[in-house]
Amino acid sequence: MHKKGRATKIFVLMIYDVGEERVNKILKIGRKYLNWIQNSVLEGELTPATFESLKHEVRKVIKDDHDSVIFYIWRTEHYTSREIMGLEKGSREIFI
Amino acid sequence: MHKKGRATKIFVLMIYDVGEERVNKILKIGRKYLNWIQNSVLEGELTPATFESLKHEVRKVIKDDHDSVIFYIWRTEHYTSREIMGLEKGSREIFI
After folding, report:
1. CA nearest to A75 within chain B
2. Model pTM score
3. Mean per-residue pLDDT over chain A, rounded
4. CA nearest neighbour of A96 among A1, A3, A6, A2
5. Which of A42, B35, B86, B95 could pair with A34 as two cysteines, CB 3.0-4.6 Å apart?
């Protein structure tokens, strides 16, 4: 019922809080896979395998005792909405 | 089928990117309603009415031409998971 042929992709939200010297690297990795939304936030649709690649790249860069990267993953965007107040700084083309 | 008696609450993720002089105010408002997770990220379960109150308070503080606050809202957390890499800076008690 909730598959609708898009079940092979997952919707990923990535939020990072990393040391200044790693911000550019993490943002660059994130943008290879996702769309930049705001500040330290990216989102997009990925296959599970591509998501694993993203995590693998992030894992190589971050310092576990200092940085923090959160991924929210959901199987369908049908249950989700997004509201933005103020400036819309990034792209929202991914949200269809 | 997807209501399960919790349909009265929604799961809210709030991410803010505001001028430095308004960070404390926004964080204070956010913490009245949600749990702090990381950097400029809070999350929690709210009733729709409480969510309206949160937005009302935020709207009074932010400068529309400078700040940005994003709310992701979903009706159920059953479709969602969260993965954290590195430090877990905030509370995750809300995620059950």
Report:
1. B79
2. 0.76
3. 82
4. A6
5. A42
Complex ipTM: 0.70
* Annotation: CATH topology of B10-74: Alpha-Beta Plaits (3.30.70)
Choose from A87-91, B35-39, B91-95 the range with maximum mean pLDDT: B35-39
Chain A CB contacts of B86 below 8 Å:
18, 62-69
**Structure confidence by residue, pLDDT tens digits, A40-79:** 899 999 999 999 999 999 999 999 888 889 998 887 666 5
Chain B positions in Cβ-Cβ contact with residue A74 (cut-off 8 Å): 74, 79-81
Q: Is B81 near chain A, with CB under 8 Å?
A: yes
Q: Where exactly are the structural domains of chain A?
A: 10-74
∠ CA B23-B81-B91, nearest 5°, is 40
Q: Is B80 on the interface with A (CB under 8 A)?
A: yes
- Shortest CA gap B3–chain A (Å): 11
Cβ partners under 8 Å of residue A87, min gap 6: B64, B65, B66, B67, B68
